[in-house]
Amino acid sequence: MEVKKLGISWQFLIVLVLILQILSALDFDPYRVLGVSRTASQADIKKAYKKLAREWHPDKNKDPGAEDKFIQISKAYEILSNEEKRSHYDHYGDAGESQGYQKQQQQREYRFRHFHDNFYFDESFFHFPFNSERRDSIDEKYLLHFSHYVNEVVPDSFKKPYLIKITSDWCFSCIHIEPVWKEAVQELEGLGVGIGVVHAGYERRLAHHLGAHSTPSILGIINGKVSFFHNAVVSENLWQFVESLLPGNLVEKVTNKNYVRFLSGWQQENKPRVLLFDQMPTVPLLYKLTAFAYKDYLSFGYVYVGLRGAEEMTRQYDVNVYTPTILIFKEHIHKPADVIQARGMKRQVIDDFITQNKYLLAARLTSQKLFHELCPVKRSHRQRKYCVVLLTAEATKLSKPFEAFLSFALANTQDTVRFVHVYSNRQQEFASTLLPDSDTFQGKSAVSILERRNTAGRVVYKTLEDPWTGSESDKFILLGYLDQLRKDPALLSSEAVLPDLTDELAPIFLLRWLYSASDYISDCWDSIFHNNWREMMPLLSLVFSALFILFGTVIVQAFSDSNEERESSPPDKEEAREKTGKTEPSFTKEPSSKIPKKGFVEVTELTDITYTSNLVRLRPGHMNVVLILSNSTKTSLLQKFALEVYSFTASSCLHFSFLSLDKHREWLEYLLEFAQDAAPIPNQYDKHFMERDYTGYVLALNGHKKYFCLFKPQKAVEEEEAMGPCSDFDSSLHLGECRGKSSSGLGPRPIKGKLSKLSLWMERLLEGSLQRFYIPSWPDLD
């Protein structure tokens, strides 16, 4: 009895310590201690920490609880200032400091459970956590309700895609995908992807609204539209699914040929330009997600520093090619407005960087929405925001008044003053409200300083008395007004109600109607055949049954008509034939067994569409054998290629493709640079360098291990063999016809002779005895 009592008291103490520790952990919230939100930036956290540390420092604050408060503040800052600890706290509710104790506790739980297993079936016997609290603790942070989905997730999906999992109780498959889901969520959420979990048992309305009728289901939401995930639940497939949700034109690939055009587009689109320099051939998912979030404010481009010709840009803008670099360009394309350069960039750092450079130095007011953002309404006397507006005529090139206004804005950037400009010919009502009625400003530029008082359009303003020419005296007068405005806001003596700005960048009515119609049709299609397919099953069954009955009736009627005609045919037909002694010629078609062609091989063209699946993401152990040809040699080379490789088509690890030399010569020459000892290197200073003939080359590409083997074509056969077919022609042919046929026959045979020893090369390829040429990464096909 004493041992039993001691055992119970020992277990009771352990449980008591656990309860106390859990209560203390639940009570401590670093966000609440510092008074910041969960989405606060590092700058906000640091600012809050400094403020609270000064207030509760024991040397300055004599409150008895100041020391404990100061310790909590320091601990909270220690957790939130460290990205790893902060992420661990956001996911698990602690900073990962008690892992040693947790390990000991897990060992104790295992011993107790082992004792418990001798008498009872434990849930781990089936590897199924029936304890819903332990399983739901992972998804509890991301649980969605119908109102939350409609009011927050759908509007937010226009800025970032959402990945949502549909789960339920007693779902074995849900438990099976849980480790992969957890890993993918940790990675994708850090990139800016929204995460959601819907419990189908408690949120049936939301699950039905999303069109999920089975668990587990994974779907993506972007721009308010739902797309279902249908592949195997692995981390790589989830990444590809999220990337497939994004529009394809978010990021433009910039090279030394088009970077000037890309950077000069700020004047037409009224957006700053963002350039990312990186060593990856494809655009990173983090950069695509950032471009989607800020697509309404900035235009994004990507520069692959490994591409030939990129040295000109990296040298001009002083970019370190070994570190990811982001440049933001505004009105000046020869010098970036801001630069950030770091390894392993975090999404929060990129967001802070882009938010600070969201607008041009002197942006053009193209819509009422942009006017509200650049010139907000005054909220208090301490939060005054002034707008200096340049009213000028539209010009294809930058005018002298605008360049002077731009230089003045660059030299006098302030938090309380925003510089903008308006095309007076496009916003005539807006410009005429701010300009006086005199003819002084007719056809000339003018500058007004205004402050918005309410959202209805009421403003106070002051327009400079003389037209703006950009001279030094004009700049001096404007600077004097701004200095005086800080001391005396009553300088803005005029009042007016501004009309709403017309949206200059909005598409025309026909395009808007087409976009709306296409969206409506796609939504109807999804709602009928995707989301509500269960409700449509009776209707579809009825339609297909009616079609089947109609088709069967037509077939039966056709057969019955043919039998009736055969039976009603006159029997005297053969007798009449015998009497006349005439027999009609009868053609009997014997059943011929079709012999499959020996050289039939499935060969696909390597294009931008098939490039990723047939090479870049080719499964391990698989190779793609690619024939190089041109438009003139396509038919003859493909026939010979099929004959040579037909005996190797039984291998499921080999795929066969062809590449057009007329379209992708640069891609081929880039690969051949890595096979310098086996292939001729094009010399750009050679006048015949663009005429080099690569037809008949064969590349065996291993997409997974990033290497290739090269087959060089043999020399052409003699011309006498090509002239042979002419001797077989009938003597009745004219001499010109014979010459024409022989001259036309010169082409295919020497070209086919290039692949005469391809089968031997294929045998060596399967043996693994060919030389391999490795490449750092597969270049883009374009």
UniProtKB/TrEMBL annotation:
InterPro entries: DnaJ_C16_autophagy_reg, DnaJ_domain, DnaJ_domain_CS, DNAJC16_TRX, J_dom_sf, Thioredoxin-like_sf, Thioredoxin_domain. Residues 562-594 are annotated as: Disordered. Residues 29-93 form the J domain. It is a single-pass type IV membrane protein. Pfam families: DnaJ (PF00226), Thioredoxin (PF00085). Signal peptide: none annotated. It is found in: Endoplasmic reticulum membrane. The keyword Nucleotide-binding does not apply. Residues 563-582 have a biased composition (Basic and acidic residues). GO terms for biological process: autophagy. One of its GO terms (cellular component) is endoplasmic reticulum membrane. Keywords: Autophagy, Endoplasmic reticulum, Glycoprotein, Membrane, Signal, Transmembrane, Transmembrane helix. SUPFAM superfamilies: Chaperone J-domain (SSF46565), Thioredoxin-like (SSF52833). Plays an important role in regulating the size of autophagosomes during the formation process. This is DnaJ homolog subfamily C member 16. It comes from Bos indicus.
